[in-house]
Amino acid sequence: MSQRAFSYGAGVLFAAAGAACWSMAGGLVRLTEGVDAWQIVFYRSSVVLVCMLVWLGLRFGGDLWARTRDAGMNAVIAGVAIGTAGLVFIISMFYTTVADAVFMTGVSPFLSAILGLWILRERIPAITWFAMCVALFGMGIIFYGNAGGGALVGTLLALYSAFCFSCYAVMLRWGQKTDMSVALIWNAIYLVAVTGLIIMLPTPLRETHGVEGFAIGWWNFSLTFIMGAVQLTLGLILFTIGSRSVPAAQLALIALVEPTLSPLWAWLASGELPPIWTFIGGAVIVAAIAIQALFATRKKRHARKASLERRGQPAFDHS
Q: Across the chain, how many H-helices and E-strands are there?
């Protein structure tokens, strides 16, 4: 069964809505009390696993295993890639500033463009390269406003996180003929296993270890439930749907909606007001995304109009 096709514009909206859901993470984390990143990721991923199994079970019923098998290693690699991206990004903030880590995510469109060109043979239009450069400039403004800095280890980890996200975007495109939603199951299983081991076993990443590390209280569990069900599951589903009609490089560009909106949610949740440079840089990023989307949509409409005229059909659009 083929996947439902969406227009390019609808794909952009789905992907942007997914990234907007992801951006809620910072604000929700600010509302937690007395828990660390590993506990948050463990419970958040557990909720994602349950939600995805229920959602895909309702969609496919007894065909769920067949869908998982059809997606194959593409889904496994995509799930591990996006899981590693999130996990490594959290770890990077232990070694460098948040601003520095967020700035490094700005290179993901370039990495996606290179991987998409190499693996998928997707040609990158000049307007996309221009928009990516503008977006990277916007990330630089945010970085400048937050004073930047940070250790080399943290910067390299954040860069690796950006690379893993680029791999995820490319794998979504690579496996678009199958249902790549099952990648989210592998993502959740991977993160539950890794964070569960970190909580249980003695490592330099946590001061304590053992079963007591799984006790977080009802308030924190409620917040992690929202993170898992809305911020991650809904966000990843929407982004995966958008990937069906949006090239990999542009997916990574649209994903920059996340760091753009993150300061807003943190401010609403805890009154954490970022510097004015953050809002200026965010406006530049949104402008880059809008430029890319408008030019690409216009180009596709012109191509469709020319195709209809060649076939002697009306060139106007009833949709």
A: 14, 0
pLDDT confidence of residue 274? 65
pLDDT tens, position by position, 145-177: 665 555 567 777 877 888 888 888 787 777 666
Structural domain count of the chain: 1
CA pair distance 9, 97, nearest whole angstrom? 35
Beta-carbon contacts of 112 under 8 Å, excluding residues fewer than 6 positions away, are: 166, 169, 170, 248, 249, 251, 252
- Mean pLDDT, rounded, of the chain: 78
Question: So what's the pLDDT on residue 306?
Answer: 67
Name the residue range of residue 169's domain.
Answer: 8-306
Secondary structure class of 263 (helix, strand, coil): helix
Distance of alpha carbon 85 from its chain centroid, rounded?
9
Instruction: Look at residue 243 and tell me if it is in a domain.
Output: yes
Of 236, 284, 234, 228, give the one whose Cα is nearest residue 259. Answer: 284
User: 313 in a domain, yes or no?
Assistant: no
Residue 312 lies in a domain: no
What does pTM read for this prediction? 0.70
Alpha-carbon distance 193 to 250, whole Å?
31
d(CA 81, CA 142): 26
Residue ranges of the alpha helices (H) in 146-275?
Answer: 152-174, 183-200, 217-226, 235-242, 248-254, 257-270
Do the domain assignments include residue 311? Answer: no
CA distance 64 to 80: 19
Q: Distance between CA 279 and CA 123 in Å, rounded?
A: 32
Q: What are the start-end ranges of the H helices in 93-151?
A: 98-104, 108-115, 126-145
Contact 181, 56 (CB under 8 A): yes
